[in-house]
Amino acid sequence: MAKLKSHLLFGYLVPTSKKLLSNRVTREFLAEMTGTFILVASGLSAHVVYKARKQQMDTFAAAFCFGVGALIAISATLDVSGAHLNPAVSTAMASIGRLPWKRVPHYMAAQYIGAFFSAFVTWLINQDAILTFDPDYTEHGSAVYVTFPGEGVGLFSAFLDQVLSTGILSFSILAADGPKLPRSFHPLYFTLVITGIVISFNYNAGAILNPARDLGPRLFTWIFGYGSDVFMDLSGCHWWLVAIIAPHLGALLGVWYYILLIDPSVAYEKESDSNTKIGDSFVPTNFQIGAPKNQENHEVAKLDHDHKEHPNDAKHKSDD
């Protein structure tokens, strides 16, 4: 009886899952949400470990954890959504035609939701450890989840820091285009890029690079009892200028600098390009869950062939 029930459940869930995931928007949303969750949770958990052990944060270790999270997330989502995992990247890619603007809202919603739940799950599995160093849910304890400026760093310096560092990140995305860097190396390439930027630009603003990485966990800390002060830095300045505005501005400057001064051909990539790159999003229009890639390509080619009018058909029509 139990075996029969399992077969019935499997027979119901699999077709339902296939139908659900055959929707392009759904697949992109789930990919961006899951990828952002993995990326952010990997770094936040490292922060908890160092705080709980009352050790000074090892910048390289934290950067490495974010990098490993990026490696997993990009590898998993590149073929589905283009592995943006970052609202600043999505808006920058839309500005140069690499992502339709109509798809930006569900990309950004997925990224912020994924980052929010990464903070929630980090708290859920580490709450006993967190209580050892922050039993009263203080603003200083919220630094496990969110970023704050380094000691003595002003808002202006932190703002410029994030414009430059996020600009380098978006610049590196377009630099990865072309035959010089095979697509299979993209996850490792961006792991090294993210790790390097986090190490180099860590002091001033905590190497945010990603508005979702900061705002998602910041909303979590506000909801779960850290108070509204989490929306300001420790000196009382409004941190959203650095955590949200600066990364978006930097990402836009990075991609447009590359297009205007390096290589304008990378803009307006065709969505039908099967060699999906970071920042692109490619899902075959007749995608079927479980179908091998070569089968998908065969079906797309067959569909195109069917739509082409045969010469004899045209002749018959003219005779009529």
DSSP helical segment count: 11
Question: What would CATH call the homologous superfamily?
Answer: Glycerol uptake facilitator protein
Strand content: under 5%
Instruction: Sketch the topology as an H/E string, one letter per element.
Output: HHHHHHHHHHH
Fraction of residues in helices?
55-70%
Q: Which second-level CATH architecture applies?
A: Up-down Bundle
How big is the Rg? Answer: 23 Å
What does the average pLDDT come to? Answer: 80
So what's the CATH class? Mainly Alpha
For the secondary structure, the number of strands is 0
Keyphrases for this structure?
Glycerol uptake facilitator protein, water channel activity, 320 residues, mainly alpha
Describe the model.
With 320 residues, the chain is an all-alpha fold. It has a single domain (22-266), classed as Glycerol uptake facilitator protein, CATH 1.20.1080. 65% of the residues lie in helices and 0% in strands. The protein contains 11 helices and no strands. It has helices at 2-21, 24-52, 59-81, 87-95, 104-133, 155-175, 186-200, 211-226, 240-261, 293-307, 311-319. Helix 4 (87-95) packs antiparallel against helix 5 and helix 6 (155-175) packs antiparallel against helix 7. It starts with a helix and ends with a helix.
